[in-house]
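To assess whether ligand presence alters the predicted conformation, the chain was also submitted together with arginine. Input:
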Amino acid sequence: MSIAQDVAPSLVRGVARPVAHPVPQQSTERISQPSTQPISQPISQPISQPISQPIAGPTAASSALPWGRRYVTVRPDHFRIDYRINPYMDLDDQPDPGRAMSQWVGLVSTIERLGGTVEIVPQRPDAPDMVYAMNLGLGLVRPDGGSHVVLSHMRYAERRMETLSAQPWFERTGRSTSYVGRDGVGAHLEAGDVFAWGDALVAGYGPRTEALALKHLATDLQVRVRGVRITHPAMYHLDLAFCPLDERHAMVAPGAFDDASASALLELVPEPLLLTDEEALTTFCANSIVIGRTVVMPAGAPVRVVARLREWGFDVVEVEVDEFHKGGGSVRCLTNPVDVVLGRDVPVVPGGEVVLPPVS
Ligand code: ARG
């Protein structure tokens, strides 16, 4: 029995709740004065389209995502369960170091075989969760072509030392870096909560990332940020419940969110592949990555989900990463895409803008 199956009964709150329609009115907070120097030079006029209109949608051709080919990952030399900051973690169920290493090697070689590139960050011995590289920071390519990382400010002190190594590593590899909060002071941001999607960065907030971080992202990056409130304690990051697949399709587990946020998120996805809580929690299937038209998923993804992806024209490659499920993360958490381009994948919005669903 896999660890996910082991812990599943206590994690699963029920199947995905039906989502109420029509979508509740969204509130739009316009931020006029950036509080810090924006890192992006506005390259376009403000988007004139009112926010209540449907977003500029992807075309029916279902173009592949332009990002997701360049990844940063952490070599798991010190992966352990030393503490419990999510319901999966159990100090009595430690990962097998050899098996974890070979699973990570398998994941890296799969990405490379599919045409992706992988940069490897060494793991700090005192940071067992650093293997979940997705949470090191939000990597972006600025409109001027330079690379930037907004470093995470982890909710739990147990993970904060990761940034102490990640920040100089990103700088050494040619990226500028910034913070929305650090060392326990200021807004918490965990990058597994943030995706480029449609006309915005979509950001989960609640268990880890705070709403205040969305305001910082919007003003610092000069983008629109659409917040979705995560309420499920076992889907503590957006990447456990949402996976962009191409410009029209995404996997969504609505049960991770409050009703208004689930509706708001589904409104942004022309063709969602809805996941039940049980599917998302026991198989980590939303925690997948996409390279062109290939979805790299944790082995054991629901047959129904794999079949639907294939119907939509995706290739599906399953990789064994169950040692990492013991810490509460899978394929997406182990990899961090650094090729999201501001002005291409996320429109520049001078002044920044935060859109939050009403509290339901
Ligand atoms: N043990 C890690 C934590 O609780 C797991 C992180 C999973 N990462 C992710 N991007 N969802 O922070």
